[in-house]
Amino acid sequence: MEETPTTLVLLPGLLNDERLWAHQAAALADEVDIHIPDLTRDDSIAAMARRVLDEAPEQFALAALSMGGYVAFEIMRQAPERVLRLALFDTMASLDSPERAATRKGLLELAERGRFVGVSPQLMPRLIHPRWLDSQVSATVQQMASAVGKDGFVRQQKAIIKRDDSLPMLGDIQVPTLIVVGADDQLTPVSEAWLMHERITGSRLEILEHCGHLPPLEEPELTTILLREWLAVEFDGRGVRDFVYTY
Prior knowledge:
The protein is α/β, with parallel strands linked by helices. The chain is about 40% helix and about 15% strand. The protein has a seven-stranded parallel β-sheet, with helices on both faces. Strand 3 (about 60-65), helix 3 (about 65-80) and strand 4 form a beta-alpha-beta unit. The radius of gyration is 17 Å and the shape is globular.
């Protein structure tokens, strides 16, 4: 039987901070200890992972979104015995396509030349579902990006560009794993979630309809429900159900 975690580590994504997980941290605080690391201080995924491990207890449950997922994979390389459960939100194990890598490098160069604009109005529709564009969700995304700032963005983008390919290590993951993706995610599409799901034995895939790249903000209550269930339910490794949330 799987050990019940007492600490839940929540990893933010690129240009995100603790506000990404605010609903989940508040709702689950009576059930587990919550720790949300700062992923803005290092310019490599390996260093980010070491910092998380240095701050975390001996064993913990690990949930991560987007860039945080890259850090989660690195934690699974460095210290797999410390992770009791793994939840991957809107991330991918594969490396960037040449086109996407070129886009990252272009944004990095602009930021290094002092032209950091945070999350622009042009980028926002790629991050969140259109129904949230004129809402507090959009405002929170912009506030987080402003708080991370140019220097944090440069460090994070350098780390992402240099990251390792995590596809080869997916078969080694032996803990209960939840994979969640917004059906309308344009940055890490459903196909990437399926790829991870197919390679992680016993993983469970959840596809959230009418949701973009940021389920913890776009669907906070549902994200909390999924995490609570993942923390409590024993995964038997005999297959999964594919759940599509429809409005």
